[in-house]
Structure formats: structure tokens, C-alpha cells
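Help wanted!
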Amino acid sequence: MKPINLGLIGCGTVGTGVVRILYSKNELLGNRIGIPLNLKYVADLDTTTDRGVTFPPGVMINDAWKIIQDPEIDIVIEMIGGEDLALKLIEAAIEKGKHVVTANKALLAKHGNRLLSAASKKGVDLAYEASVGGCMPIIKTLRESLVGNKVKSMIGILNGTCNYILSKITDEGINFQDALSRAQDSGYAEANPELDIEGLDAAHKLAIVTALAYGTHLDFDNVYIEGISRITPLDIQFAAQFGYRIKLLAISKDHGDTIEARVHPTMIPFDNILSNVNGTLNAVTVTGDAVGDILLYGHGAGMMPTASAVIGDIVDIARNLAFNAAGRLPLLACQPEKISSKSIMPINELVTHYYFRFEAKDQPGVLSKIAGILGKFGISLASVHQKGRKSGGSVPVVMVTHFAQESNVRTAMDEISRLDVVHGAPMVIRIENDNHLE
Amino acid sequence: MKPINLGLIGCGTVGTGVVRILYSKNELLGNRIGIPLNLKYVADLDTTTDRGVTFPPGVMINDAWKIIQDPEIDIVIEMIGGEDLALKLIEAAIEKGKHVVTANKALLAKHGNRLLSAASKKGVDLAYEASVGGCMPIIKTLRESLVGNKVKSMIGILNGTCNYILSKITDEGINFQDALSRAQDSGYAEANPELDIEGLDAAHKLAIVTALAYGTHLDFDNVYIEGISRITPLDIQFAAQFGYRIKLLAISKDHGDTIEARVHPTMIPFDNILSNVNGTLNAVTVTGDAVGDILLYGHGAGMMPTASAVIGDIVDIARNLAFNAAGRLPLLACQPEKISSKSIMPINELVTHYYFRFEAKDQPGVLSKIAGILGKFGISLASVHQKGRKSGGSVPVVMVTHFAQESNVRTAMDEISRLDVVHGAPMVIRIENDNHLE
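Answered by r_m:
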């Protein structure tokens, strides 16, 4: 049987992992698929670095466009990341009728609708399991295994860097900057960590799985995003006193006409299984109307876990090609003409529980002023914690609310922060009490 | 587009769940697949019970063979369970060129090789995701998502009844019989609970996932099986003192030429995530050479979770049919001619840690006699716990070993049980210290 020709663009960490699996398991993969895979080209600007694999002559090239132009290439594997060149290459590959595998979540979140629509019109497959959750098969689970469900909600820890940093602050009581340095020293955070710590990476992923869960188009622009850089050891300690841990969660919920989609530091109860997902691990719970809750848990990043997901996609497409069945699976959750136009709810409409921390002057009447403003906006308190008086300086006043609406919380915080007895901006952390798998 | 015709045989709990999803989500499923599903017949001997669904005229029939004989039926959904009739029906359906979906783990474990071989020769699909772990997509994960991995090991809680009973004994200190009664009262155990509590159900499931993980044929006969009926609250308390919880685990590991496949009560450390999977929930960790560890966790049984998995299979096959791609996926892990002949290792060759409890006479020298026999067979102890002397009667002597071989353990236990200072058969529980997702 004629082999399926692959062209891989971008031989960095994950690309190298993909090459390793393709070379070391060529026979195994052939036995599983029934048709051999042939890695015809690997394109990278750097063709000389020793990647620990031996390329046969002519495989390693420095011109990605040679892969796009080669009529023999069936599947293009885009591993360069970034947006500009990757977008051009994928669009050109689709235009040439080639199938595409990518792990590029930023690209998909921002340009996915255009790419998927082009692929669908051309009848080619575009697979992206590795874009979310590394080796956790969340894309396949949503689009195939849970096809008989209406997804009600989804809560995930989707960024290993943030989870590592928050775990370090929690376990060692160090501050954010020190925890970030540790993450950088250990290779878990980039030199420029903004994409991770500001929540963007998790939001890219949430945009992708939200579209699959609720049958909508991708809508990254309306995902609410808040990073972890303001989280202090003090908040983590207070959280523990209330029975919570702080995690950067990606949350989406179906509200019928609209959906929630938000990424922010969140307090979750100790007995929520996600509160025990530590270090760089990722996990996601999906609640479906038939399955109840299910959890996937594993390594969300790293060379080989991500490469494993890429290989899964390559094999899915190869199996389609062996049966002339490209397009067998819609590229999002539904057939293109059936995609829902449900929109993402503005964050101001969110109703949830909140944790507040105010740095208040150590004098009588402060609590009453704060509580008065909260009351005015209909925000009622489930518990209040005021640290013992300190001579001079400020004391933290900590509160947990019953259900309150975000718009009211924002207006109240604004007013409270203007009180002369309160220093600086209040700390606000949303709480997620929905529990799963208990 | 011509709809795909389904015939469902056996409208019990899960069958009714499948009908509910097919009726309530007919449009949604059509939007997702791109081709409508038509439930042409539902066959059950009982055509009169109110199942909470309204069948259009002519759908409910009492003759399963009418489904097999009807040339319009594309997919047969076998939901009657049991072995004899189900086997005949599935064989006849395959012979007629129909695709089959089943959740019948006992049938697959025992007759799967024959059925899958017949299906493969005939070029029809036989899907069985619902046979293992209810809604957890373990079959799809092993066969598709992890296709680029060599699976190294797999450890699962695959029987909700046993997990419920052990959780009750652990949490409430009641004995096995009382916990079983509770499970029966709550509908979590059958009136005849043998299949569950003796470990057979978990072993059926382990046989299936073992074949998929290691690319072998099904080999239920060689899975080692031990149930939970001898577990006492006392053993659970001792386990806790050593930092362990007791679970009925299904364990398989790759040893190169052979594989381990065993189901038995097992002690696992508190910090192994599986030790916190309680009640009727199921979970499985898979360790692959590329992904590291991943965990799937969810409802392993019940009407709707199982029906959800059945729907996933129906849709997978429907998508194949829409593209004329039946047989796209091999029915086990590899193409039929490439299936490995690796065999399951006899339990006597197992090397692991063990917990022993002896009921010993309360007199001097007993410990030395027991330890002497263990030493003779090369079994060395990691810790020993002897309860304070009781006046008269017996005292429990509890031990945890370093690595020891099962054959030696069995011979030693035999010899120790013949000592006149030891009452009754020793309690032996295997320990699994390999930890995952830490």
C-alpha cells in the first residue's frame, strides 16, 4: 500500500518529539494503521543542531514552502508556533488540498474560524488535539465520546506554568516573583512568561474547547481573562482558612442562549478533585447531561506528551486517507452549517461567590463602612475575617460572599477603594463551589 | 441523505437510556454527524412496560431476529447482556453484514476473539466502548489517542459495586456482609452479586483493555482473579496504619515477552490518586512511554453514562458509513495479522510487595516461627506490627514485605498456616506502590 507522506514544519521541542515517535515506532504505527507513514521532509531554519535523531539524507530541509509545494505530501504538521508564518503556511497547505495537524492554540483561537472554514470547503482535515491539554484527549472526548451529551459545564486547569507557580506559592509560602523565578529556572516558564501568567494561553485553549462543547464558532475575543500575578501568599493562606485552594481555572458553562467562558484565579474547595492537581499537571472536568461528570488528567505540555497527541492526530487523518474518508469528522462539533450562534456572556453578568481582601486602616468603624457599601449593592456576606488589631499600619479584612453579580461587585469595589480608610485596590477572587466527582 | 437505520435489541436499563438519547437528541446528533439516525426497531420480550419513552407505531417488537433479518438495518445495538443469545444474535448480524455495538463485557472477554475475527473478515465494525468503564473513554483513548505510545502499565478501579462496598467498609467500619447489603439496598449490587464481588466483572474489563494496550488477542482465561469478600474492617484499619487504602484494582503491566493481568484487592498509598476514588466511581491510569501517566475518571456504570458511551459508538460507526469507511479502525489495537502473541504471566511469577495478617496464639516465640519460615523463602520484611498481648485467644500479627515472589509467598503461607500457633488461613493482600500523577 502506498505510504502516506508527511511533511513536518518546525523541528523544535515538540517537533523533535514527533520525529522521534515516527522513527522509533514506524513499524508499530504501520501495524496499527494498516498503511505505512513516511516522513518525507522536516523543515527548520536550523538544519544543523543535533536533535538526537538521525535523518536520512534529504529529509531535513530549511525551506518550509518546499513541503507546501510538493504534490506528494499528504499531511502537513505545523509545529513552528506563532501566528504570522504559521497562518500563511496552513492556509497555503489547505489551498493545495493537504491535510493539516497543528498544536498552535493561539493561531486556532484567533484565526481558527477562517482556517476551519477554508479546510472544510476544501474537504481536508485539520486536526488539533495537541492544542489543548497536551496528552489529555479532551478534543476527541468532546467531539466523539460525548457526542450524545449536551455539555453543561467544563472546568479545567489548562496551563501548567500557572499551576506550578500557584502550587509553589501554596506549598512554600513564597511570593509570586520568587515562584515565577523557580518556574523559569526549572524550565516550566518562558523567559517572557506573559502568555502563561496573564492567562492568555489558558484562554486560547478555553476558546477551543468551548466551541466544541457547545457547538459554537470560536470566540476568543469574548473570553474573560485575568492572570495570576496579583495572587499573594496571604490570599492563599486566607483561602485555606475558608477551606479553599487557589487555581487558575478555565471555566465555561451553558446558560441556554449564552455561555460563560472565563479564565481567572479561582478558589475551589479542598474536596474538589481539581484542588489536588498540582505542579505542571493539567486536568479538566466535563459535565454532560448523560455522563454526569468525567475527568481527564495528565501532562498538559512537554515534548513527548504533546508529541503523543500530535501522533494521534496524524494517525486519525492517515486512517481517513486509507479509506478515502477525509472530512469524516466535522472540524468543530457540528456540520459547518449547523454551528450555533450562541454568544459568550459579558463578565458583568456573571453571578458567583466572591472573596474580597481589603487593607484597612486599623481604626473603629472601618468594617461598617465597607459592609455598608456592599449592602447597598445587594452583596451579602457568608463570612468575614478581620485579623487582630495591629498598632498602626493596616489590617487585612477578608470576606466571602453569597451569590453576587459581577457588575455590582465591580461598582462596590470601586466605591470601597475610594474610602480613605482603605489602602490600595481590593483583592477580588471568584469562588467556584460547584463540586464534581464526589 | 438516506438515514442510517438502527435496530436495538434489549430495552432494559441501558437500552432505554440509548433510546432516550436517540429520541431526545435526534436533531443534535444529525447536526453532529451530518446524516440522520433512524431507530427502526427496538426488540424486547417485554413490549408493554412503560419506559418513559413513546415509541412510534411499529418500532417496539418482540422478535430480535426481525432486526437481524431486515436488510435495511445498518447497525445492530446488542443490549440484552448474557452470553448465549447475545452471541448468536451478534454472529448472525455480522454474517448479514451488519455493524454491531455492544456493551457486553462478559461476551467480549470470553468470545471476543471469535466475534472480532468474524467482523473483521466480513468488513463490518464491532464497537464496544461501553463495555469498560461506562462513560470513561478508555477504549478510544487506548486505540486512538495513545496510538503513538507503548503502554507500560494500566491500573484501574473498574467495578463500581466493589468500590462502593470497600468505601463503605472503610468509612463506616462495617463488615463485608453489611456493606454488601447496603449496596444491594441502594441498587449498586445485584441480588446475585457474585459477578461483581468475586472480581469477574473487573476481569472481563481488564481482559478487553489489556488486549488493546499491548496489542494482543483477548485472553480472559489467564487473567488472575480474586474478589473482595474476605476483606475485613480490621485489614482496612491496618492498611491505614501503614498509609494504604484497599481497593479492588485491575492491573496490567508490560514485561516485554509477557504481560501481567490481575484483579485483586490491593493496598495503595493514600497519595495515589486512585485511593481517593470512592463510591461507585471508576478510574483508570494509563502509563505510556510518551504521555507519561494519564487518568480517566467518571461514572463506570448506570443508565445514562453507559448509554452515552453506546451513542458514541453508534455515531463512530455512522460516520464511517457516511464515508463508506467501515473497518477504518482495527477492532483490536492492530491490524488482525499483526496482533502480538505475548502471553499473560502466571500469577506465581509476580513480584510485588505483600501485606500479611496472621491470627497467632498469644504466646512467646510465635513471631520467630513465622519470621523463620518467611526468611527461608527469601521473603524479607519492611515492617511488622504485633498488637499488644491479649489474655488468652489470638492476636493479629501484621507484616508488610519488601519485594517478594508470589510462588514463595504461597509456599510460605501454606507452611505458616500449618503451624499450631497460627489460627486459620493467613490474610494476604498485594500492595501496589507504583505511584502516578504525582
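OP: Thanks! One thing I noticed: Residues 165 and 180 of chain B are 6 Å apart (CA to CA).
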